Amino acid sequence: MSAEQRLKELGLTQLTASKPAGNYAAAVQTGNLLFLSGKAPQPIDGKPPKGKLGREYSAQDGRALARSACVELIAAIRQQLGSLDRVVQFVELHGSLNTVPEFEAHAEVLDGASDLLAEVFGPAGVHARSVVGVASLRNGVPLTLKAIVEVRQQ
Amino acid sequence: MSAEQRLKELGLTQLTASKPAGNYAAAVQTGNLLFLSGKAPQPIDGKPPKGKLGREYSAQDGRALARSACVELIAAIRQQLGSLDRVVQFVELHGSLNTVPEFEAHAEVLDGASDLLAEVFGPAGVHARSVVGVASLRNGVPLTLKAIVEVRQQ
Amino acid sequence: MSAEQRLKELGLTQLTASKPAGNYAAAVQTGNLLFLSGKAPQPIDGKPPKGKLGREYSAQDGRALARSACVELIAAIRQQLGSLDRVVQFVELHGSLNTVPEFEAHAEVLDGASDLLAEVFGPAGVHARSVVGVASLRNGVPLTLKAIVEVRQQ
Q1: In terms of CB atoms within 10 Å, which of A98, A138, B74, C117 comes out highest?
Q2: pLDDT digits over C49-64, tens only?
């Protein structure tokens, strides 16, 4: 099954890519590599989520927020490429979690994003990964994700 | 107008690349991609800026500091390539801001760097971007920038 | 002398790559670039190190911990490639240090890793580098390293 078909099965059909937060592009392609800008989770009831993991949000909340930011990444990839079926391999996923200094469940949180990539892209969704807990993020969002993806030419 | 010409118009003619802070290179090229090491803002009155955004420095200060660190990046690119006109595309810019945990104006600060890239490189300066607020940086500098740039062979 | 020979001289012969902490790969190759996932220092007396630089660990401790995490990176590269002699150039090393907000000795700490790369790979070990102090890391580890390496096809 193709990534576009899996997306439909997951009910993720109304993907609208959010706009960059400043003077930059959502993505830049060089050769076969597509570099994606950082993405925060989608708004809930029209409001962007705000708060820190380990204070406003639990690790379990974080999993859902990571999945949500990953949907944003996927929307950006789709907008850039026209179709997710042009993705050859997800190369790298980097997560920045807005945490209190004692937070330790980074791997659990990021799996919310990694699991979605596996569901949508199958083996092509398996990626190298890194995750850190940061002191602050723009507008107080609880996490951001960025990625590098290998794509085929049209 | 070429990037070298724009640099002159901006009065940025005396670019001296600062030395790496440890046992590493200012930049490494692989294929057409140039990976730049992290750069802090330029010294002010001979002293490297020191302090946190949201405490010693405002967001407006941060904009100027981001522009200053971006000048450092540009100097490193120029030293590596001989001329900025070998830059095909600025691919990715990543900012690490030394902030208090409540800081939220990351996008405003980074635009200080992104705006300079647009001024110097035009469309070739449009980049993917990510920014985080970190707990600390070497020698207490207020921010660092790193980048990946696509270059043409000489 | 080859990287494999230098590894032997350093007594680093029993390299066992640790497993990823979640649903991701230890490394992903795209073209000639190998992207490595984040690695923490090796266990000490069977236990993963835990604590912050500037509180539980000094800068000098940090140097040794960075060297240890770099051994983990090298083990992951070796497992992926079969032999370190397939490394053409170490491209980028990024360090995330789990620090108190006042920590400033990031460059000294990271040199623990950079020095090892120079010892093992010689000129091919010279890399672009960046390092930040983060608010938290998975399971409270004191630092993680990630890297991008240029490799030759088999």
Answers
A1: A98
A2: 999 999 999 999 999 9
Pick A27-151's CATH classification: 3.40.50.300, 3.40.50.150, 3.10.150.10, 3.30.1330.40. Answer: 3.30.1330.40
Does C55 contact B at CB distance below 8 Å?
Answer: no
A14: Cβ contacts below 8 Å, ≥ 6 apart: none
**Which H helix or E strand runs over B132?**
strand B128-134
How distant is the Cα of B10 from the closest Cα of chain C, in angstroms?
28
Measured between CA atoms, how close is B1 to chain C, in angstroms?
30
**Interchain contact, C114 vs B20, CB within 8 Å:** no
Rounded to two decimals, the pTM is 0.97
**Structural element, H or E, at residue C111:** helix C106-121
- Residue B14 burial by Cβ neighbours in a 10 Å radius (0-12, 13-18, 19+): exposed
Q: C71-103, pLDDT tens digit by residue?
A: 999 999 999 999 999 999 999 999 999 999 999
Out of A32, A101, A130, closest to residue C146 by CB: A130
